[in-house]
Structures are given as structure tokens and as C-alpha cells.
Automatic annotation (TrEMBL):
<dbReference type="InterPro" id="IPR036726">
    <property type="entry name" value="GTP1_OBG_dom_sf"/>
</dbReference>
<keyword id="KW-0547">Nucleotide-binding</keyword>
<keyword id="KW-0460">Magnesium</keyword>
<comment type="subunit">
    <text>Monomer.</text>
</comment>
<keyword id="KW-0342">GTP-binding</keyword>
<dbReference type="Pfam" id="PF01018">
    <property type="entry name" value="GTP1_OBG"/>
</dbReference>
<dbReference type="Pfam" id="PF01926">
    <property type="entry name" value="MMR_HSR1"/>
</dbReference>
<keyword id="KW-0378">Hydrolase</keyword>
<keyword id="KW-0479">Metal-binding</keyword>
<feature type="region of interest" description="Disordered">
    <location>
        <begin position="467"/>
        <end position="527"/>
    </location>
</feature>
<dbReference type="InterPro" id="IPR027417">
    <property type="entry name" value="P-loop_NTPase"/>
</dbReference>
<protein>
    <recommendedName>
        <fullName>GTPase Obg</fullName>
        <ecNumber>3.6.5.-</ecNumber>
    </recommendedName>
</protein>
<dbReference type="GO" id="GO:0005525">
    <property type="term" value="F:GTP binding"/>
</dbReference>
<feature type="binding site">
    <location>
        <begin position="324"/>
        <end position="326"/>
    </location>
    <ligand>
        <name>GTP</name>
    </ligand>
</feature>
<feature type="binding site">
    <location>
        <position position="173"/>
    </location>
    <ligand>
        <name>Mg(2+)</name>
    </ligand>
</feature>
<dbReference type="InterPro" id="IPR015349">
    <property type="entry name" value="OCT_dom"/>
</dbReference>
<dbReference type="Pfam" id="PF09269">
    <property type="entry name" value="DUF1967"/>
</dbReference>
Length: 527
């Protein structure tokens, strides 16, 4: 069973905002005291926070779906709904937050660093907050908005200054145990280290951390052994230390060959943009400062091998140290060399001038007509106009379409924003389909508002809108049925006239009616 996880896909969703309340104040001798519906509470956020006590992402591997608390609905007597509780997820120091596409969203370094992974939805306004001089007693409230929902990738990258790399069983874990208080698992078989180990080393006045990652072998970039996955834990390191086994039991291995293989594997590894130096550039692993530690010189064969390969390594430009994790030989000199590289890297970061991004100036919208765009499309060979923007989409989500007054309020908001005016300019005609939002969205048959404003609501019952009732547009099916009824009525009338014509009856003649009544004729003649 896994005990260490350094990469997970997390599904997070913020809490849904509570709905606003529709209520009217009622007291003795005062049955209509005005609207008193409270607002809905906002949904809770999902926040990632660095916690020093958390060292793995194992909890999110077993439970990858996390949802914050929803906001409470508003109530009468101006009582607002309860705000949803924020869900705080503890992550290890050095966690990188990415999107599913690989975009770096946040790099959480340092105790208490936070990132809002999913924002909670906004609560809806009650009818008391929607009342105005023209709309004194609204019969509707706004709905709560669903919280943000998305998938994110969490990758743990250890915060270490020096990284030990090398073949399995080269003695990396033994070096950390000898130089620090860390106690990693040590055994005499390959791939003993399955998780990164961190140790704190004190050399003179410099304190730094050393990371030991699982061993690399030839073909690790192709997935052999434990692969390249654990190299993400050395991306933040200022320098690398090649730990070479000078007492390897395999006859086909030697320190020079091991070094060349590890260098090739480091060259094939691509460091992503989550790590950058002081100048904002990413430095590949094989181009960072490197030291060579010839380990296991306490063994006679190991010392002879170290003395044999040291001149060639120094000719290649490496600083070479003969060390032994068992006898602690050479560890002091290696520690001071590490400390010098770390201090130099820290000084360069402190002395580097900060990179100031120029401010981006965004002009404010004129007359409130900004904040949306209209895109003309075509659906079923008919024009379709898609309205995009934060405000229109949010307003649609807040609208209760079972309430005519709420729909009328949405129409007033869109008209005030300038949507109808823009539709006219884009060439929209009455009856054209208008969609608000991406995807299917909410589809309307556009009918330009000829009479607008909340001043017309005085004659409408609460919860209704006389404009919608008066100017409701029939559907296409209703139009077809009405057209067929008119055709059938005209056909029946023509058939009746044809039958009368054939019978010799002409209803157009006025004298025919008088001539068909002989009694009246005789009476008139008698008169």
C-alpha cells in the first residue's frame, strides 16, 4: 500500500451560494409592511495551505473529490443565510498547483502560503435588497450561483538546496544519515529508497537541506526502474552531487561509466517553468553546479578505484571528494563545499534586482456598456447571436425563469448594460435566437423591448410582469397551428360559398331575403 504520493489530480468545487428569500413583512394592523426577504449566504472557498506537518499528498490520492460547504438560503424578517465554511486543504511545502493542461497556477513555498483552488458561489439577493422607488415590493429574489468547479494537479517538489543523484545502492541514503539527523531506510539491495528523503546539514555558519532521490539507471527516461518521476524533487536545488559507488560488485560498472549514464539521463529530463532562477530563466539539471563524491573509500577496493578515476574526473572539470558514509571520512570537506555553493546561490538571489512587471491599464467601460461581447454564429441555417461576458452569464444564473417578474428584471438589466443596443448594431432581427453563455447556454427568441422600465409594474400582480404577458412571443409550433387553423377556416368558408352558388342562393343580394317572405309582402301591399 502506498505511503508516499507526490502527484495527484484533485477535483475541487466551491460551495453553492444560497438563494435569496421572497417575503413581505406582516404585522397586526399592518398586513403589507414591505419586503423583508434576506439575502442568501455565499458558498465556501476551497483553499490550499502549506502546513509543515504535512509531508505527502497521500490523503488526496485516496479522496480526490473535495467540496466546500454551501451557503444557506435567506429568510424572512431580513435574516441572511449562513455563509458556507471555507474548506482548507493542507499541502506540503513546495507543492506546485497546475491545471490539467500543465499551466502553473501557484507555487506554494513557505509556511502558511495559500491558494484559492475553487471560489465559492455568490449568494442571491432577497427581495428587500431588490426594492427601489419604482419596484417597491418585488415578488422575486435572485438565486445563488454555483461555486467554481475544476480539476487541478498537485505536484510535490521538495525544498532542498543540494540533491544527491546516482545509481541505486550508491550510498546516497547513507550519506544523508551520516551528515544529518535524517534516518532513511538503508539496505543492501537496489531501489531501497522509494521516496525522497530530506536532511538538514550544518556546515560552519551555513545551514542547508540535502535531498536524496530514488536511484537512476540507464533508460530511466524511458520508464525503466523508477523512471524520471522523482527528479521533480531536485528541480529547486542549487547544485547536484554525483554519488559514485567505487566498490560496486557488478563487473560491468565503473564510476566513470555511471557518471556518464546519469549525466545522459539528467540531460533528457526537462525542467518545467515552476522553477526559475533570479533572472526568471530555467536552468537544466545538467548545467547546474555539480560535485562528485567517490563513496565507499573505506573498502580497500573502493579506495583503489577512487584513486584511479579521480584524475580523469578532475580533468573533466569536476570537484572530486573521496568520502565514506561508514567512517565519515571526507564528509566535512564535502559539507563545506556544499555550503559554499548554497551560500553563493543565496547571495545571487538576494542581489538580483526584482523584475517589476509594468502595470496593465484597462480603460473603464463607457456608460456601463462594456464587460460583454457578442459573437454571431449560425445554427440550423439560421442566425444565432451569442452574448458572452461575466455579468450577463452571472445574471442568467441568478434568474428564476419560473417567475415572470424575475425574467422582466433580467431584461431590464441586460437593456441597461447595452445588450439590446449592441444586438441592433450586429444586425439582429426580431425572432432571431440569442444565447447567453458558452455551450448550450440559455436560448431566447429575441424580441426588442419597446416598452421598458420598472414603472410599468404597478399594474402587475406580484411575481408577474405585464410586459411579458402582453408581448409574449408564440413559439414556432404555435405559429404553425394558428396558420393551419386560418387556412382551414378559409377553405371551409370558400366551400360554403361554392355550395350556395350551386344551389342558386346568393347571399350578396338584399332583395333575395325580402322576396323569400311572401307574408310580409302581402302585408305591406295591404298597408
Amino acid at each position: 500500500m502506498a505511503s508516499f504520493v507526490d502527484r495527484v489530480v484533485l477535483h475541487v468545487s466551491g460551495g453553492t451560494g444560497g438563494h435569496g428569500c421572497v417575503s413581505v413583512k406582516r404585522e397586526k394592523f399592518k398586513p403589507l409592511g414591505g419586503p423583508d426577504g434576506g439575502n442568501g449566504g455565499d458558498g465556501g472557498d476551497v483553499i490550499l495551505r502549506v502546513d509543515g506537518q504535512t509531508t505527502t499528498l497521500l490523503d488526496y490520492h485516496h479522496a480526490p473529490h473535495r467540496h466546500a460547504t454551501n451557503g444557506g438560503n435567506g429568510m424572512g424578517d431580513w435574516r441572511a443565510g449562513k455563509t458556507g465554511e471555507t474548506l482548507v486543504l493542507s499541502v506540503p511545502d513546495g507543492t506546485v498547483v497546475k491545471s490539467k493542461d500543465g499551466e502553473v497556477l501557484a507555487d506554494l513555498v513557505g509556511q502558511g502560503a495559500e491558494y484559492i483552488a475553487a471560489a465559492g458561489g455568490q449568494g442571491g439577493l432577497g427581495n428587500s435588497s431588490l426594492s427601489s422607488q419604482k419596484r417597491k415590493a418585488p415578488g422575486f429574489a435572485l438565486l445563488g450561483i454555483p461555486g467554481e468547479e475544476r480539476d487541478i494537479v498537485l505536484e510535490l517538489k521538495s525544498i532542498a538546496d543540494i540533491a544527491l543523484v546516482g545509481f541505486p545502492s550508491a550510498g546516497k541514503s547513507s550519506l544523508i544519515a551520516a551528515m544529518s539527523a535524517a534516518r532513511p531506510k538503508i539496505a543492501d539491495y537496489p531501489f531501497t529508497t522509494l521516496i525522497p528523503n530530506l536532511g538538514v546539514v550544518q556546515s560552519g555558519d551555513v545551514r542547508f537541506t540535502v535531498a536524496d532521490v530514488p536511484g537512476l539507471i540507464e533508460g530511466a527516461s524511458e520508464g525503466k526502474g523508477l523512471g524520471h518521476n522523482f527528479l521533480r524533487h531536485v528541480e529547486r536545488c542549487a547544485a547536484l552531487v554525483h554519488v559514485l559507488d567505487c566498490a560496486a560488485l557488478e563487473t560491468d560498472r565503473d564510476p566513470i561509466g555511471d557518471l556518464e549514464i546519469i549525466e545522459q539521463e539528467l540531460e533528457k529530463y526537462e525542467v518545467d517553468m515552476s522553477y526559475a532562477g533570479a533572472d526568471g530563466d530555467v536552468v537544466p539539471l545538467n548545467r547546474r553546479p555539480r560535485l562528485v563524491a567517490l563513496n565507499k573509500v573505506d573498502v580497500p577496493d573502493g579506495r583503489d578505484m577512487a584513486e584511479f578515476v579521480r584524475p580523469e574526473l578532475e580533468e573533466r572539470g569536476y570537484r572530486v571528494f573521496e568520502v565514506s558514509a561508514a567512517s565519515h571520512e571526507g564528509l566535512r570537506e564535502l559539507g563545506f563545499a556544499m555550503a559554499a555553493i548554497v551560500q553563493e546561490a543565496r547571495d545571487s538571489v538576494e542581489q538580483a534586482p526584482p523584475r517589476v512587471q509594468p502595470p496593465v491599464l484597462k480603460p473603464r467601460s463607457v456608460n456601463g456598456k462594456g464587460g460583454f461581447s457578442i459573437r454571431r454564429e449560425e445554427r440550423n441555417l439560421e442566425p444565432l447571436f451569442r452574448v458572452l461576458g461575466e455579468k450577463p452569464v452571472r445574471w442568467v444564473q441568478q434568474t428564476d425563469f419560473t417567475n415572470d417578474e424575475a425574467v422582466g428584471y433580467l431584461a431590464d438589466r441586460l437593456a441597461k448594460l447595452g445588450v439590446e443596443e449592441r444586438l441592433f448594431k450586429e444586425g439582429a432581427k426580431p425572432g432571431d435566437a440569442v444565447v447567453i453563455g458558452e455551450g448550450d447556454g440559455v436560448v431566447f427568441d429575441w424580441e426588442p423591448t419597446m416598452i421598458g422600465g420598472a414603472e410599468l409594474l404597478a399594474a402587475s400582480p406580484r411575481g408577474s410582469d405585464i410586459r411579458i404577458e402582453e408581448f409574449s412571443r408564440p413559439t414556432r409550433e404555435e405559429k404553425r397551428e394558428d396558420h393551419q387553423k386560418r387556412r382551414d377556416a378559409r377553405a371551409a368558408a370558400r366551400e360554403e360559398l361554392e355550395n350556395e352558388r350551386r344551389a342558386g342562393i346568393w347571399t350578396e343580394s338584399v332583395n333575395y331575403k325580402h322576396s323569400s317572405r311572401p307574408a310580409d309582402t302581402e302585408g305591406n301591399e295591404a298597408d
